[in-house]
Amino acid sequence: MQSPEDIKDIVRPSRAHCEALAKIGTATASSELSLLGIRDAQIRGPRPLKTGRSVAGAALTLQMMPKREDLYGSDEYENPERQLHRHVMYYAQDGDMVVVDARGDMGSGIFGEMMLTYLAGRGGSGIVVDGCIRDCAEAAKLDLGIWVKGVTPNYHAQTNLIPFAVNVPIACGGALVMPGDIIVADDDGVVVVPVGLAEKLIEGASKHAEWEEFARLRLSQGADLRKYYPLSAEAEPEYQAWRAENPLQK
Fold first, then answer.
1. CB 3.0-4.6 Å disulfide test: which of 41, 80, 124, 157 passes with 119?
2. Fold for domain 4-193?
């Protein structure tokens, strides 16, 4: 079990990259990452507690492990500073995403309303947990994105799990998450973007979004799906003419 003194802060990616990825969204990010060699970047399992948000931020990671009572007592408040799930929150900065390897457990509420209120107050963008939170009704009122597998009345270490390490590599929903990775989350789910690929992804996604806007317009007018999605060589001259007439799309 990690000592709080051994926890390190993360190296954060560019906020401009995070903001761009939030606008791009998970579906386009996932498909563009596949073109860049990352076959499957999805974190499987967590779903939005409330819909309508698209966020991206640096990953602060929390690793949960199976409970062993000699390492972690049963009293939640016996020594609060031993609770490493508190320590991941201490590092939260504006825009950060807290990502938790909760082993898919459905009986441990990793965070409750108070912890999540603190994260929202620190300017965090949200949390991703391949497990549960508690106090979901109050948590849903916070200005915070929340992606979880479910909810439970139990507190974090009441049943099967204990917080074990902070800002270490984790497996969350079948995906490897490195501290400082960019986490993109929206109504479609959650995607992990390696920082080193962010710029290329954004560049590719911008081109993709532009021709999709043109194709969407043509398809809404009843045009031939085979010609406009994906954009065919036959439609390319028409697309270039449309771009010239719509400078805001460049």
1. 124
2. Glucose Oxidase; domain 1 (3.50.30)
